[in-house]
Amino acid sequence: MTLDELQQTIAIQFNDTELLKQAFIHRSHLNESKEDKGSNERLEFLGDAVLSFITSQYLYETYPQFPEGTLTNVRSTLVKTKSLGAVAASLGLGELLMLSRGEESSGGRSNESLLADCFEALLGAIFLDRGIEEAKKFLMTHLLYKTETILTTKSYIDFKSLLQEITQEKTKTSPVYRVVKSEGPDHNKTFWVEVATGDTVLGSGIGKSKQEAEQQAAQSALEKRGDI
After folding, report:
1. Which domains does the chain possess?
2. Which active-site residues does the annotation give?
3. pLDDT tens-place string over residues 32-70
4. Nearest Cα to 12, choosing from 145, 143, 144, 127?
């Protein structure tokens, strides 16, 4: 992918293409090049603030029925590294990242954290070059539309914390999570987890990480109890 192709993909034509280019300069690249514009970290800093503002405004105006706590949890789910990294990957931003040879050989182009940072840097560049309305359009198209799915699946809820709170209140004990099975190579394992109090299994879950499986197990337990 080229920068021109990216602009076509996101339907935004930059006035300053050097600003767009800077959004993809990782700090590791500076050690092996003569780039004098600096890395994308300042744009990332700005983009993070723009992302928080636009997302907060969107949620506030779109969901007047939700209290502050729910809005905060939904926003956190939208802007977390995993979410932003997935959007960046779908846009092909990793192909444009300028990395050191070492960073590239270690899988930097598909690194979730680097992709999320690049997404924020790109947003910062859009804001500077085209203004807040273009930044809003970009986020609506590529990120904020996911809100309804997040609400439908209740993925904004920290099920483990909620189960812990309810279980301690009702039984004065804490739920215990245990891996009952795992399959696959180290880089692509699947985990089966059960959550229990004493000898009573409350729920079970499956995930590509222990944390994901535990969240599913807690959600299963809460749904069985009728607490969500």
Report:
1. 3-153 (1.10.1520.10), 159-225 (3.30.160.20)
2. 48, 120
3. 776 667 899 999 999 999 999 999 999 999 999 999 999
4. 127
